[in-house]
TrEMBL record:
Protein name: HxlR family transcriptional regulator
Pfam families xref list: HxlR
Boundaries of every HTH hxlR-type domain copy: 15-111
Protein source organism: Alkalicoccobacillus plakortidis
Native organism taxonomy: Bacteria, Bacillati, Bacillota, Bacilli, Bacillales
Keyword rRNA-binding assigned: no
Top-level lineage group: Bacteria
Molecular function as annotated in GO: DNA binding
Length: 111
C-alpha cells in the first residue's frame, strides 16, 4: 500500500491492502489456503481434522467466503454419502509466493 493510495482513499479499507485483508484476513482463511496449497484437493472432514479447533460451522462459513471471493473451488460429486473436495483457484495460487515468504519468515524467527 502506498501512502498516496491511502491519502487518496482516506480509509485503509478502501485501499488494495484493505481488499487483500478482506479476502484473506481472520483467524482461519490463511490456514485453509496453506492446507490446500500443501495437499489439494482436500475434503471437508479431512480439513476439519487437520485444522483442529475450528468448528464445523466456522469452517463451512470460511470456505463459503473463500469460494465467493474466487480463492477456492468446491467440487461436489453426486454420490451417497455426498463427497465434496476443495482446491485452490489460479487467483489463490498467485498468493502462494506470499505464503512461502511467511513460512520463511517463520523459520527465521521462531527460535
Amino acid at each position: 500500500m502506498s501512502m498516496a493510495e491511502y491519502n487518496e482513499k482516506g480509509s485503509i479499507k478502501e485501499t488494495s491492502f484493505g481488499y487483500a485483508m478482506s479476502v484473506i484476513g481472520g483467524k482461519w482463511k490463511l490456514l485453509i489456503l496453506y492446507l490446500l496449497a500443501e495437499q489439494e484437493p482436500v475434503r471437508f472432514n479431512e480439513m476439519k481434522r487437520q485444522i483442529g479447533p475450528i468448528t464445523y460451522k466456522m469452517l463451512s462459513s470460511q470456505l463459503k467466503e473463500l469460494e465467493a471471493d474466487g480463492m477456492i473451488k468446491r467440487q461436489e460429486y453426486p454420490q451417497v454419502p455426498p463427497k465434496v473436495e476443495y482446491s485452490l483457484t489460479s487467483k489463490a495460487e498467485e498468493l502462494l509466493p506470499v505464503l512461502e515468504q511467511l513460512c520463511e519468515w517463520g523459520d527465521q524467527n521462531r527460535k
